[in-house]
Amino acid sequence: MLTPGQAADCPRFTTVLGKIRVAAPVGRPRTRPTAVAADKAYSSKANRAYLRRRRIEAVIPEKSDQQANRKKKGSAGGRPATFDPQRYQQRYQQRNTVERCFQKIKAWRGLATRYDKAPESYEAGLYLRGSILWLRLLTSTT
User: Fold this and answer.
1) How many Cα atoms sit within 13 Å of 79 on the Cβ side?
2) How far apart are CA 8 and CA 4, in angstroms?
3) What pTM did the predictor assign?
4) What distance in Å separates the CA atoms of residue 113 and residue 111, rounded to the nearest whole number?
5) Rounded distance, CA 122 to CA 2, Å?
6) What angle do CA 37, 43, 48 make, to 5 degrees?
7) Contact 19, 1 (CB under 8 A)
């Protein structure tokens, strides 16, 4: 999902999850993952409620200000959000691959600084950069 460069990712969480399609060996693609791992930026009541409704496990740490607010309310603050630190650590280690891919994409200054104002032009640049990276991977001898 393409958003303005200054827009936060958290409000787009449910939209992005709604577009996920994972091909299955047989049958239609899966649209509901077993679990979602995300960093503290995605820790919100709305996101957690969305995941609960869809019966998806949230592997998202709770923000410290949310913890403090909940504790300040006492028993009316509710239970702490469930969180599996081991599972989060496993996913966090895999995140390095994604971050390196973003770095390779941003090696093109036009994509990093968002010179293209039209969404179509920017998206075309992303596809072109992805194609070049893919072709380099195919032609590498290592």
Assistant:
1) 4
2) 9
3) 0.69
4) 6
5) 9
6) 80
7) yes
58, β-bridge pairs: 36
Cα 124 to Cα 44, 47, 78, 106, 129: the distances in Å are 32, 30, 46, 14, 9
Task: Fill in the amino acid letter for 105.
Answer: I
Could you write out the three-class secondary structure of the chain?
CCCCCCCCCHHHHHHHHHCCCECCCCCCCECCCCEEECCHHHCCHHHHHHHHHCCCEEECCCCHHHHHHHHHCHHHHCCCCCCCHHHHHHHHHHHHHHHHHHHHHCCCHHHHHCCCCCHHHHHHHHHHHHHHHHHHHHHCCC
Q: How do residues 102-129 score in pLDDT, each as one tens digit?
A: 899 888 888 877 777 788 888 898 899 9
How many residues can be counted in the chain? 142
